[in-house]
């Protein structure tokens, strides 16, 4: 369960979020969500949340009681501002109130002097703007203060140009990593690659900016939401803007591409990930919560959509494949599920076939909806499934019976079967498939570069297989294929390491001589052909050559680096000397013979963190040309929506 | 002269190159240059070098004497192989011989047991292949051994599509750095940038792979040559393949885009850089040597081209602007020049106006050729020219009189004047302009992130000014503009740093708490407006906010990081405790109050090194569309040559 432990550690530290900014998206004391500069697809559902903050102590105290008489108006273009209830023809909701605390800076945190804020709030649910153009939303509060938000409804064509979209997400995948994966997986002669990555062959390239709304570094939750909804949000949020209330399920929602596509066109949806399936990237397609760690509720949303408010009707995807069995099997077996239900049964009751290993996946009929859950926690990595198979001997069976999950599929198996089912079932309606190589990020987090690059090569191999399959069935020309990432991870390769020389030296300063830079980097010693269990593919044959890559992250815990493959399973670079101390040191059992390096991250971190860099977007198929150039991650949503023709300039007739 | 000291240190370590590979481009004992897989532009001049190696000791000894009877044949397609002299109708050159030594690995280096190789060699000079297609060049040696090289002459259109090409090179500039520069130079509201970089606005984006021919990490010399000639080479090489002889001027040459463009079309050439002008990126356009450190000869090649062999006639560029006055002023003043000449005089004698400060640059007439040399060594950085101007008080006057070079232009001034001169002088012939922001790389090398990002913002500002100027003169539509880099540098931003908290803590582990990641990164504290001396531009107003960027490289010397701007001039992260010991430790005078971090590079390194990552190519104008997707750096040459229509399928008539 180590992988879960790590994920949980990340989330716990991230969940204590209200540090150092009162509320990220609201620098003033009057808050409007969606905030200023928000973009909308015409007809996209969203909620409005208004908050007025009355700081009770700290630097922001203004000596006014909490304002209970705030008002809110909306104006279209240069038109007259009218009350929100009139604008949308809705009832005034009831006033809510709560308090929350935050620390103004690190000194305040050390001194344990939180600032307390008294809040009055309202929410308006499931609204939509149809007419393209600019809207001005204004909150009037505290006797004359205002917070104005400019909302833009983009003017997009309603004509559909792509029948299908396949969105590949390499979680945390940067250009730097793609370059490194090419170097170990593809053969070069005198500087000329004899084969290249499938994504290298895509005709259109773009870059997307991944920053969060209130922070320039994102996590996988709100970056997924940006890609899926066209709205940036804050760390840990899925399909909502974060408000300041304690309830993780009442934050103002925005509709996702999966929801809109299904609601408007009846199109079919598939979701595939090598993560536990409740993880952020798959979750972002159906969940609406400010806490990505509400895994049970995420799984319920896959099947039932949003049930606590009136929202887009959702009856489940055609395909849901991944890990994370602990949110599916019975609590009697140790399952951690929503309302203590057994979700294998819930899915079966709705007509899903339940698949729990690669053999049944490959044999499954393509005309039935399918839930495939192949392990507890994250799925096994390509390197362990194909090279170091002994590492599969863990009690991770998706049945919950504590046996080993030895027969796990890879991303290619899952994605090709998902494609079969979607092609068979969607008919003229078309489909949207999201396929995620999740452990590129997860393995970069733990500085396990070999496993991360193996996952990246598996993603590329999956893309190759999908392109070939679509070509065979003549569907390639009606399918937009996108390959992108949700955020970066500060990684690069700077040379080579003579691991034999490194191990033979006795001091860290002498060990550094083993690093070869510039011309001493030499050529890649990894070979891309040979007798792996994984055939017909570009993967290294030898993961343990004498000369490896001098590679790494830039934001690290303390660790010992020896730049060699971890044969015993994913790396654990840092450990606590004392349990629950939140004080991590280099793991003495990791990186044997290597150089001891001090970290730069706060010492409660046992792994690396995400980075700022723009990430690449590779596109081919109908509409591909609009993915060229540099743009925001939210534009990926608007471009996909344009290709699907999802904008709606008029409200539907009343039913 | 510190900057020169640093550059020289890099080059000395790089010049002792024959370590660990006998000869990078030649794994067998028979060597053919250009090697297997080389691509050629039809009609491009090149030399052939053949070598047969007889190892006298070490692991490769085969017990044969040096072969003096080797033969060499060439076949076109499936045609008959004919002797090279017959194929090209040339005389047989005389046999050459020499020996060289190398170390087989680090253990051999420590044991001081070099391997010695006896060489027999020939060279065939200034040849060209005209007919597109595949050629097989075969060296027969050692009684039956062969080394075969497949050469490809690309089949490219001869039609010219662009009148002008402007090639901007951000030396060492990666996507990660562009993202960081955007973050400090442009304002964002709720995650939406209110302005973006000029390069963000380019419609076409590509990635180019930068690896060297015999190493996966490149330097700026051979990567420049790849961009300019379509031939990858080895570290330190300019416009040649490296042979094993001691003479740095006899290596087999390949013709550059500047040479071909001028020879075939009479087009005009401009060269602009913020480096000392003999540095690799500008040098690559006219120099042909395996030692980039032959600065004097490089400067002579700018003016006179290649003089030791018959080669493309070259009469100097229209514009040559940059630093590096020590290669121009008289040796009596301390100049270090080719054949002890005074190159200001040499240029003036050929009709160049000589410019030595910004004032004279701006006032210079646009109808005369111009040499502008504005400082000894590398030019002052944007940050020092505009914010910390006291740092200009050094004895760096380009006259050599030891006064200060206070009135230095920036990249924008130089590039706009270069454009004026080229537009005025080139008429219908068109021009090729290379403009380099050299100190992005130079400042990344010394971990001076602020200065590096300042240079990147200046590059972007220059591109903006050039686009605007071309638009005003209606030349935008006939000018292909490219923005790219020659290689990467492992850099990224992972969060923010509370510099006040960092300074207030007493232990390194506690100081690490000052690092904010994910939502604690917050928003950029740099402001992009205000009253700099540099106007109308997107540069930070405040370079020294409390919350800075948690940024860095991945391959470092020992250093102390405090993530704050260096107000006293470029950073010097590591120093020797004992002079000439080649043993660098963290500089105790750098990074006050920061965290002491151990490096990973061999301890003789006082700075960071280049990285593997693919680098971006931004393109606009005629032909821009062919720069989309992922390709090798040599393809940038072929794409530019295509736009200029430089391929020649037939040899010119005899004169």
Would you give an account of this structure?
Chains A, B: Its cofactor is Zn(2+); Mg(2+). Chains A, B: One of its GO terms (molecular function) is metal ion binding. The structure is a homodimer of 655-residue chains. By secondary structure, the first copy, chain A, is an alpha/beta fold. Chain A has three domains: 18-154, Immunoglobulin-like (Sandwich), CATH 2.60.40.10; 164-491 and 610-644, Alkaline Phosphatase, subunit A; 494-597, no CATH class. In chain A, 24% of the residues lie in helices and 24% in strands. Chain A is built from 17 helices and 30 strands. Chain A has a ten-stranded mixed β-sheet with strand order 16-17-15-14-18-10-19-29-13-30, sandwiched between helices. Chain A has a five-stranded mixed β-sheet with strand order 2-9-8-4-5. A four-stranded antiparallel β-sheet of chain A has the order 1-3-7-6, with no helix packed on it. Chain A is globular and about 75 Å long. The two termini of chain A are 49 Å apart. In chain A, 61% of the residues are buried. The model of chain A is unreliable at 1-18 (pLDDT under 50).
